Amino acid sequence: MARQKSYHHGDLRQALIENGLAMLEEQGLEGLTLRKLAARVGVSHAAPEHHFPTMRHLMTAFAVEGFGLFAASMRSAMADAADDPAEQLRAAARGYLAFARSRPHLFRLMFTANRLDWDDPALGPPANAAHAVLEEISLPVAKRLNRDTPDGRAAVEQLVWSQIHGHAHLMIDGKLQQEGGTGDEPFAAPLDLASVLLPG
Length: 200
What we know:
Helices cover about 65% and strands about 0% of the residues. It is elongated, with a radius of gyration of 19 Å. It is mainly α and about 200 residues long. The relative contact order is 0.11. The protein has eight helices and no strands.
């Protein structure tokens, strides 16, 4: 029998999250259980339940990590782009798609509301940080379209998010593969959202 590892309280929680995220991308959500995760980490099968009584608790912890990484991916791309509304929109889209491409199972989980506990206070801040990027890149579009009101901004945000998010799902589902393409283009031809919404 393999010797079980000893962890401090916080160390075990983080080890479960890190190993669980790796398992999620390796095996998909259907291949992940608390028992399998315990075996991978090297603790008793009951040990994870002290931190994550159910899979819903574990999935929520994954999403907390995921939204932080997601926001950072977009912000990093935006920091490397020109300080221009169209370029910032394109950069945010690149960061959005880069995250989805690198962590497709986590990306899907983060937007599967019934698997997460949205009453968990840890989930709100990173999710709001990611949403703040959407608000930021959508505001110049709302102003260009003379929709700079609460309802108008919300409508523009929905439009921008729908295009980028839909593209991300089509991409990770293999629906946008083009012969000779790299898969790195922020938008599939013929539509460049920034050129359409922020021309010139």
